[in-house]
Amino acid sequence: MYYFSNILLTLPYRWTIFGIFLLFRQGELRKYSVAGKYKNYIYRILNMMKNEIILETDRLLFRPHLVDDVEGYCAMEMDADFRRYVGGNPRTREEAEHRFKNALKPVTDRLSVWATVYKAEDSYIGRCGIYPHFNHDGKAIDNEASLGLYIAKAYWGRGFATEAGLAFIKFGFDELKIKKIVTMVDIRNEASAKVIKKLGFVLSKTEIAKRSFYHFELQHGNEIN
What we know:
Elements: H1 2-10, H2 13-25, H3 28-32, H4 36-51, E1 55-56, E2 60-63, H5 70-77, H6 80-83, H7 93-103, E3 112-118, E4 123-134, E5 140-151, H8 160-175, E6 180-186, H9 190-198, E7 202-207, E8 213-219
Parallel strand pairs: 5-6
Antiparallel strand pairs: 1-2, 2-3, 3-4, 4-5, 6-8, 7-8
């Protein structure tokens, strides 16, 4: 474990946060907390991550996920109402934690779904962002991105998804030079479909299957100003 910890100390902090999570899950972080060297380093890394704001709106800020976000993240994944339209069945705690590891992986191109914080409460309320749009072969499509807006149930109906969506559309088109943004909505999810249309997206096709989806797209130049 000493060798592994020394490796962490030489890595860029974006990679280190994933290592910290693994230590946390193995119970090793508690050991390190009594050693000043590791304690100071870990908290310095966490503070850097917390202060790395990707995007900000009047009420929200978007940043990389932190180990401390695990409870809020897992609560959403285990919530049957939240999962109804974004995967079906609620996840177990173990499944949610396993998925959370992916949220801690480093991002180099700013195309990701970011931890979403309600500034008035300094609370983790979900994850939002634009991420690569993949074709049927699993390859990212150039100049395109997918929009994801995942807000915890306790914060539904307060306009947070719309606020986040407008911010990431502008971010994608103006800063990342994306040409088209797409998204999918379960056809039973009328509230989310309404938000997506409000953001300026147009329906491109309807997919009818065991789980059916509306496919929406928004071309650069057609966004709401």
